[in-house]
Structure formats: structure tokens, C-alpha cells
Amino acid sequence: MVATLVARSVTVSRGSQLVLDSVDVTLAPGHRIGLVGPNGVGKSTLLRALAGDVEIEAGSVELFPPTATIGLLPQEPECSPTETVHAYLRRRTGVSVAERELEATTVALAEGVSGAEEQYAAALERWLSLGAADFDVRVAEVCSDLGINEMHLAQVTGSLSGGEAAKCSLASLLLAQFDVYLLDEPTNNLDLDGLERMEHWIGGLDASVLLVSHDRTFLERTITDVIEID
Fold it and tell me: What is the distance between the alpha carbons of residues 3 and 30, in angstroms, rounded to a whole number?
């Protein structure tokens, strides 16, 4: 899906501290924008605000069309100590939520709930757009290519090393089919092979990307524009 994200005058505070002050961002299809600035100026907060994970005090964030999907990769992977790698990949790609929504609307449709047809159609479209239909097939292909075997997929994420966790984060990106990507330091802990794969993946995206990175060389190879906040 072709999607555009438009943020106008986004303002966020943390207690009495102003973190973001009237920030404007437009992410159009094919845009690959690097978000740069010193530590502590609110780069991660901006990504989370655009994804809807942080409440904004003023301004607006709009997605066109509203049914488009946003994928946020935080700097520190949000892993449960008891979550398996396979479950992590399903969650990070949005597949697990899409499947729950499809199952719920299927039940509502069978029960004749008012408006269920429209809700089911929307849930099915989201499920398909996120690549849920062939997810397990793609997991096998991507993970095999990255050296993640079936035993690793059953392993809990809490037991992963930094390098293994980075590889799983990379796998989640390669499997994802979002319309807008918000990436916070996506190259952390990646080896040279992982960096090359990340560069190739970003370069081949039709979707829009906003990414934070301190790796200037990586940014020069992947982005089309820069936004600097201070």
C-alpha cells in the first residue's frame, strides 16, 4: 500500500521538561530520511510519537490512508524473557495482532453481529497486507539465510546474546511488510554481513523510512534526506 505520514507541530514533554517542540515531519512513499542530533534531544521520543506509542501534547500525526501500517523498531528490542524467537518475529511484524483481529471478526461475522462484514473485510485486508498468509514459509527462508535454525526459533529471547538478538531484529525487518518504517539505531550489534543486508533491504523498499543512526557511513549509503533536531 502506498502511504504517507504527516506530522505537524508535534510537541511532547516529560514532566516539566520539553522534549519535542513543534516538530514537523512528512514521510512520503520512497522517502528514506535520516534523523540525526545529539543524544537526549528526543529522537527516539519522536519515533514513538509518530507510531502512537507516546501521547503528544500538541500538534497532529496523520496517516494517509488511515488503514496503512506503521512498523516501529525500538533501539532496545522489547522482548519478554519467556517469548520465543518465533513469537517475537510474529509480534514484531504485526502478524500476531492481525491474526487475533481476523479471528475475532470471523467469530463476529458467524454470529451475525452488526457491522461485522466491514470489520472482517478490514481485518482480512490487514492480515494479507502484513504477509500473514505465507509468514511461516518466509520465516523458514529468511531465518535459514541468516543462520537462525528451527532450534533457535523455539529458543526464548531472554537467553539470546547481543549478536543473536540483533540478528533476530534484522530477521523481523526482512519479514515485515509495513507501509511506514520507524527505525531506532537498527544497526546496533550487527556484523558486516548484517549491515550489508540492512543497507540492501532499505535500498529496495518502496515504503517510507525514518531512521535514527549514529553511523554516518550507513546513513550516507541508505538515506535520501536528513532531518536534524537539537
Answer: 10
Q: pLDDT tens digits, residue range 133-142?
A: 999 999 999 9
Distance CA 158, CA 137 (A): 25
Q: What is the pLDDT of residue 166?
A: 85
Q: Which residue ranges in the chain fall short of pLDDT 70?
A: 76-79
Contact indicator for 209, 29 with CB cutoff of 8 Å: no
Which domains are assigned to the chain?
4-94+130-228 (3.40.50.300), 95-129 (no CATH)
C-beta of residue 225 within 8 angstroms of C-beta of residue 31: yes
CB 100 within 8 A of CB 132: no
Amino acid at 188: N
Strands 4-14 and 70-73: unpaired
The amino acid at residue 6 is: V
The three cell numbers locating residue 77? 528490542
Q: How many residues does the chain have?
A: 230
- CA neighbor of 32 nearest in space, from 216, 230, 222: 222
- d(CA 196, CA 202) in angstroms, rounded, equals 10
Sign of the C-alpha dihedral computed for residues 3, 69, 56 and 185 taken in this order: negative
Strands (E), the chain: 4-14, 17-27, 32-36, 58-64, 70-73, 180-184, 208-212, 225-228
